[in-house]
Design goal:
Blueprint lengths: L5 E7 L5 H12 L4 E3 L8 E8 L14 E9 L5 H9 L3 E5 L12 E14 L2 E8 L5 H12 L2 E11 L2 E2 L6 H7 L3 H7 L1 E2 L9 E4 L4 H5 L4 E2 L3 E4 L8 E5 L5 E7 L10 E8 L3
Parallel strand pairs: 3-8, 11-14
Antiparallel strand pairs: 1-3, 1-10, 2-3, 4-7, 4-8, 5-6, 6-7, 8-9, 11-13, 12-16, 14-15, 15-16
């Protein structure tokens, strides 16, 4: 089966939890392991990256991706355009949030970055907002906090339209997946190669002679590198690829100077290739 290790960008339907959707996909495809990155509330829809098989090992590459949402916020009283805009501007930049009671994380105050909030339209007291924010931002809490500035508001609807480099154009609905079963070519169009999950982070290509060491978790030095496909900074997550472009492992950059000989550049964090 060509989908045992790959990435599915699912258009999550409203109703089930993210975990329930992942389990449905796992059973449908007959894979042993599957997981998602970036939980959506049961009633929320949109972009949900699902990792299959060995691809679950690359979750760190997707966990901190910025997100974009379309939120329908219901205002509890009539608010002028100017008053609304003034309130929204207070939440652009670094904000402080305490996760909602119904959340999977510890409820302590934390900072998150909101890059933009744009009004797309409004109908009565329902306002459509486009929110671009840092991973881990609770849009439901953001809506209620905006409401606190203008006499009350709550989130009425939520759709995630982007998660990092993956948007609605990359999404597939569950029905597409069901219809593709038994057709390998159709499944290959839906299930992305594991390498697509790391295409947005710095990656290095190692020599064939270095692969056995990489597979045993040994650090990578400049002498074992063929090329670096994009710039990397110390402490940054890096994908390690073979000359053929196969993802071997993930690691963290420990040096930026690639001109010195036999200097350790990357410490392996996890081996991805079986």
């Amino acid at each position: 089966m060509p989908v045992e290790n790959g990435l599915l960008i699912l258009d999550k339907p409203a109703g089930p939890t993210s975990r329930e959707v992942v389990e449905q996909v796992r059973k449908l495809l007959g894979v042993k392991l599957a997981g998602h990155v970036g939980t959506l509330d049961p009633n929320a829809t949109g972009v949900l990256p699902i990792l299959l098989g060995r691809a679950t090992r690359v979750a760190p590459a997707l966990e901190r991706l910025d997100k974009e949402y379309i939120a329908v916020v219901h205002l509890h009283r009539s608010v002028s355009e100017g008053e609304l805009q003034t309130a929204l501007e207070k939440f652009i930049g670094t904000i402080k949030q305490i996760p909602p009671v119904k959340s999977a994380v510890v409820r302590r105050e934390r900072e998150r970055r909101v890059y933009s909030i744009d009004v797309l339209g409004r109908e009565g007291n329902d306002v459509n907002l486009r929110v671009v924010c840092e991973a881990g931002t609770y849009v439901r809490k953001l809506a209620s906090d905006i409401g606190a500035e203008i006499g009350g508001a709550h989130l009425k609807g939520l759709r995630r339209t982007r998660s990092g480099p993956f948007g609605e154009k990359d999404c597939h609905v569950m029905e597409e997946l069901q219809n593709a079963l038994g057709d390998d070519s159709s499944l290959r169009r839906i299930i992305l190669p594991i390498e697509r999950a790391v295409a947005h982070i710095p990656n290095i290509v190692v020599k064939d002679s270095s692969i056995p060491a990489v597979m045993h978790g040994s650090p990578i030095s400049t002498s074992g590198i063929v090329k670096v496909n994009s710039g990397m900074q110390k402490g940054e997550l890096v994908a390690i690829l073979s000359v053929e472009g196969e993802l071997l492992a993930l690691g963290y950059a420990v040096a930026e100077d690639l001109t010195r000989k036999n200097v350790v550049v990357v410490q392996i964090d996890r081996v991805v290739k079986a």
